[in-house]
Amino acid sequence: MKKKKVILVLCLCILLGVIGLVIYFTCGVQQEDKQGSIDVKYEKTNMITNFRLGIAKYDSVNPHITQNKDIIQIVSLVFEPLLTITQDYRLENCLAKEWSKVSNKSYIIKLKENIKWQDDSNFTAEDVKFTIEQIQKDKKSIYLENIKEIQKAEVVDNYTIRLELKKEVPFFEYQLIFPIVSKKQYEGKDMIKSKEMPIGTGKYKITRLDKEIIELTKNENWYNIEKEDSNIKTITISLYQDMGEVYNSFKLGNIDLVHTSNPKYEEYIGSMGYQKKQYLGREFDYLAFNCTDAVLQNVEVRQAIQKAIDKGKIVSSVLEDKAYVANFPLDYGHYLMKDIEWGEVFNQEEANKILKDNGWKFEYGIWSKIIEGRTRTLNFTITVQEKNEQRVKVAEEIKKQLEAIGMKITIRKVSDNEYKKILGNHQYEILLTGVYNGYSPELNSFLEEGNLANYENAELTTLLKEVNNISSEDLQKEVYQKITETWRREAPYLGLYRNQVIVGYGQTVRGDVTPNNYSILYQFSQWYRQ
């Protein structure tokens, strides 16, 4: 009996001990949670609310005068467009409340009604009309391309404007990203010579402007401040003579961010001591095949070339991993490409099989086939711009890869003038070239009548006309799935690579840095320094 009591007491003690431990650890965790929340509050109350940037070769802070892309990025915090672009290249309202396509050449835009300029005057449709006409008049703005097809801007009422185009422009809505300026501030004045402090509608306003410093201050009266209240109260922008000075200032910790597409950036700022984000740039290099050439008009030949080229090796050995393999003009992060898988293409054995299956014979060191009574061989000339040293090196690597499967390749290096002629008359066999992609999903320049590859496909022409008028995202994705499948199968072009862009930022910077080609300042309201 005594033994049972002893055992019972021991069990009771153990049970009480376990309960005690549970209570202890539970309280401990809760205490840690409380301490954690205290730490967060401590960080926020002690965060540095000034952000430091640097600009090389400053010209003007006015977005319609400057030719400096870095200034355009920064002053987007001051001047706002009708529409803006999201991280995955969707359109999003900014100053516009809504827009509609009335016809192929006519658009109606409704504006938000609660917006004021930083001098407290009302933003209206008159400001939009004035901005468009000012860009057309001056002809020097980098946004001239955006509005060049606008024939007439008509104010319907204070918050409605109608745009009439000279001709249909595929995905014209993507052109409505130019910053709006104040009619009241600039009407009747020379915008270039004006000494007034420019005003915008954005979350920051310009409060200092001299030869060494531009200062932006948080706009406490910004219409959207309740939804997006910024941690950063002031932005100090130091002005430098060249990018070398910017790199050095970043390396010394005097500025908080550097934005560059220079593949040799590590030679200037090193590889350690900062954070960085990389993203796919808009410079898309590719091979164009002349689809009217007696040999290259045969799809199996283009497919074989596509399979024989190792893009990964080009990027690693020629471009030193300072670029990204690219297959398609929209593969820089566009939402329409999100669910499209390209798959592995490089396969030399399959390239040989494609040729053999289509009647090509490899004899005496060359592929040949009788086409329309004449013996044709796989002997091509790749044309490349002589001054573009990078593309010349890429052409030499492509020559090696194609000759590895028995094709004969000659590299033709041409002058700038000759290169421009070729882009105009399309007289070449294979052309190594490139394009600076826009933001819209427009592919007409590659596939419509008169395209660089002399490629014709009635189905694609129809799809391109249809997709411009489709508002459903699901239907758009279906169309682009068909377009990419045809592009891959028909291979009028062979995408190679696109440039790499770097945003480097200091170790003390906090927040979600998620740049793309349109903006490096997404989620800027959440950023701060510690």
Beta-strand portion reads 25-35%
Question: Could you describe the largest sheet, including whether it forms a barrel?
Answer: 7 strands, mixed
Instruction: State the helical fraction.
Output: 25-40%
Number of helices: 15
- N-end to C-end Cα span: 68 Å
Q: Please tell me how large the radius of gyration is.
A: 30 Å
Average pLDDT, rounded to a whole number, is 91
Structural class based on helices, strands and sheet pairing: alpha+beta
Total DSSP E strands:
22
Unreliable segments of 5+ consecutive residues: 1-42
Shape: globular
Model description:
This protein is α+β, with helices and mostly antiparallel strands. Helix content is 32%, strand content 25%. The chain has 15 helices and 22 strands. Helix 8 runs antiparallel to helix 10 (348-357). Residues 1-42 have low confidence and may be disordered.
